[in-house]
TrEMBL record:
Keywords: Membrane, Transmembrane, Transmembrane helix. PANTHER family: SI:DKEY-19B23.12-RELATED (PTHR33444), TRANSMEMBRANE PROTEIN 272 (PTHR33444:SF7). The keyword Cell inner membrane does not apply. It comes from the Eukaryota. It comes from Rotaria socialis. This is Ig-like domain-containing protein.
Length: 688
């Protein structure tokens, strides 16, 4: 079985329609329980009887984000949907213009599918860039064929449309910027008119022709490997003199020195990295006396930091003598792992021990040639809840822009768990890995490896995946996964504000989201907790002085009721903050959430009305007598009651004013910084 598009993660524009195809014997889509309320926008249909099931999403929204499972007679496959927030402008993103997502064709006729993709930069004078286009059907890339598929600049022409040509065709647009590689998918569903008339049409014959004499796995002889290539024949690859294949057959390298005590994972000397993506590497020491450190090629040490704006940093998890290097995004160059300088003195008498190793990263320009991509196959980092189950996808894709062959390939995928070197071979029956009940101290790395055995070369590529519970390590603030947790409260506050600036539709929307983020911080929780003192005093004074204000007996009532309402509101806020910051359990039901929101809204309305009433009392009775007199025994009010009324009203004014000022300063600062950055990028950015 297979899900198309092939990647494990698909980002869909907010409000857009989308199709996902499940191929296999008697396929059936399984929708998560939390999505049931939105089933009006989710539907399924069968395109080829008992072979294809199409999941249709009408108007993508944040409530539809999450995992979708397709079950067949043999296995279950998963795809995770993410959302791209809608923006008012069209800059810095690929857009599809006026493309029809649904076609109906008569049997045997020809049909044309259009895909008008454009990319707009922030330069006002620039014309829109035209991305490169590839077409995919049933996970595989289509190639120009005069008898079946004919490519135009922005179209696909299909000849002699038959029953088994039905399904979802995916137009993929690619563009390489100066520091990023962008890709976007557009689905087009094509069906036959009266398709039930052609149900008994036989499947086209398979193109595979295996003539490998039962060679089912790679055979290693000295420095030569033999493997069954995609053409169905045996290929042999020999390493240069003095080099051998590494354990994953991904590249040739010099034999490892027995005295080598530092090892970099992935175990390669050089590696291609995709623009704009986050990569993590590990350096291990096999000697208890040696502590590793990462440096640049010039010898400068890469410091450890959890600052969200630092693109290159190192950190340590639970393992001893293991140091992680995180590049976000990856930057080409050579990175060296060596023993710490203070440890070198220990090894002076053991000069044969090697305490330096390195890895060289090169930018992979897939759009200009071909290669394996992990853009949609895996996330770089996962933050999961304790005792929850994590789904890790590893579905590398092969993009061929040279179009020198009519064959298309889906790379063989393997997940490698580095702490015990356990290899999980992923197939059409098992296309992802479920890690059950993540423990509180668990964290680590998997390597997603994609491999294509072409006749002329064995193409292999890696992508590191970090996972684990972040409560017990210093680097948890950088981990997130949207389908498991919509918003992690332990992500850096400013990182979240900068993210919301990108997603906000207008200035006031950004101000609203910024205020929500600031009020969710632990500092805000401490201020709310300290503010409990005032309503408690108000309740105490109001109860003890109910008869101590003959001037207007409503003044002590105002103090008592105002204190009770303020206390209730603050407790509601603190309880919500506690649930947000503590380790969450099961999500609240919709009914519970609706009830809580109603009570909070009702309390807020009463507080506003009571605050206005307090202003009226103060203005109406300005500085009354605070002691009873014989001339006018009813014209006095307790000093404690009256001044507490003034303090409560003044405190409310001051709090609201300070909050507005803080939000305004943060919003203005972020806006100016992003504007300055956008102007700088506009001057330096270029497209290829």
């Amino acid at each position: 079985m297979a899900i198309s598009p092939h990647g494990g993660y698909v980002s869909i524009d907010e409000g857009a329609d989308f199709y996902i195809e499940c191929i296999g014997p008697s396929p059936k889509w399984i929708i998560a329980k939390r999505l049931i309320s939105d089933t009006a926008r989710i539907s399924t249909q069968s395109v080829q009887m008992n072979r294809k099931s199409i999941l249709t999403i009408q108007g993508m929204s944040s409530s539809l984000v999450g995992p979708y499972l397709c079950q067949t007679n043999q296995s279950v496959s998963t795809i995770i949907l993410q959302i791209t927030k809608r923006k008012l402008d069209m800059t810095k993103q690929i857009r599809f213009m006026g493309t029809n997502t649904n076609h109906t064709v008569s049997y045997g006729n020809d049909t044309r599918l259009n895909c008008f993709a454009q990319y707009y930069s922030e330069k006002a004078m620039d014309s829109p860039y035209i991305p490169k286009i590839l077409w995919f059907f049933e996970r595989r890339q289509l190639h120009h064929n005069e008898h079946k598929y004919i490519f135009g600049v922005d179209s696909l022409f299909i000849r002699n449309f038959t029953y088994h040509d039905q399904g979802v065709y995916f137009c993929r647009a690619f563009i390489t910027l100066k520091t990023r590689f962008l890709m976007k998918i557009y689905p087009i569903l094509v069906q036959l008119q009266n398709s039930s008339w052609f149900v008994n049409e036989t499947l086209p014959p398979s193109l595979e022709n295996k003539n490998c004499d039962n060679l089912n796995e790679t055979v290693v002889t000295n420095n030569t490997i033999s493997y069954c290539n995609t053409g169905g024949y045996v290929s042999n690859c020999t390493c240069p003199q003095g080099q051998i294949w590494n354990e994953d057959y991904s590249q040739c390298s010099s034999p490892m020195n027995q005295n080598q005590i530092l090892q970099i994972i992935p175990n390669v000397s050089h590696m291609n990295v995709e623009l704009g993506r986050t990569y993590t590497f590990v350096c291990r020491s096999t000697d208890d006396r040696i502590e590793p450190e990462w440096t640049y090629e010039n010898g400068t040490t890469i410091d450890s930091s959890t600052h969200t704006e630092q693109s290159i940093t190192t950190y340590i998890l639970s393992e001893g003598r293991t140091l992680y290097l995180r590049l976000s995004p990856a930057v080409s160059g050579t990175y060296i792992c060596r023993s710490r300088p203070e440890e070198n003195s220990i090894l002076k008498e053991e000069s044969s021990i090697t305490t330096t190793t390195s890895i060289t990263l090169r930018e992979q320009m897939i759009v200009q040639t071909n290669g394996i991509s992990f853009q949609s196959s895996a996330l770089a980092e996962y933050h999961v809840r304790t005792n929850s189950t994590l789904f890790v996808a590893c579905r590398p894709e092969y993009f061929n822009f040279q179009l020198k062959t009519n064959l298309s390939y889906v790379p063989a995928a393997t997940l490698i768990r580095i702490h015990d070197n356990n290899h999980f071979l992923l197939t059409e029956l098992i296309d992802g890995l479920l890690i059950d009940r993540i423990s509180k101290s668990e964290s680590g790395m998997y390597l997603c490896m994609g491999m294509i055995p072409l006749p002329e070369q064995l193409i292999t590529s890696f992508y590191p995946i970090m996972y684990g519970d972040g409560h017990n390590n210093l680097y948890s603030s950088r981990w997130s996964v949207t389908e498991l947790k919509d918003r992690q409260t332990n992500i850096s506050v400013f990182a979240r504000i900068y993210e919301e600036y990108t997603d906000a539709e207008h200035f006031f929307d950004f101000a609203k989201k910024t205020a929500a983020i600031l009020f969710q911080t632990k500092a805000a929780s401490l201020i709310f907790a300290a503010s409990l003192v005032l309503p408690i005093i108000m309740i105490s004074v109001g109860i003890s002085n109910l008869e101590e204000c003959p001037l207007d007996r409503n003044i002590p009532v105002f103090v008592l009721v105002g204190g009770a309402l303020a206390l209730l509101k603050l407790l509601q806020v603190l309880w919500k903050q506690y649930n947000r910051h503590s380790a969450p359990s099961e999500e609240e039901t919709t009914d519970t959430q609706n009830g809580s929101t109603f009570m909070e809204g009702l309390t807020t309305i009463f507080l506003i009305i009571w605050f206005i009433y307090g202003n009226y009392l103060i203005l109406h009775y300005r500085l009354p007598r605070f002691e009873q007199t014989t001339e006018d025994p009813e014209n006095w009010c307790s000093k404690n009651v009256y001044f507490l009324t003034i303090i409560s009203v003044a405190y409310t004014y001051a709090s609201v004013t300070i909050m507005i000022l803080v939000v305004f300063i943060v919003v203005l600062t972020v806006h100016l910084q992003n504007r300055r950055r956008a102007i700088q990028e506009a001057k330096e950015a270029g497209c290829t």
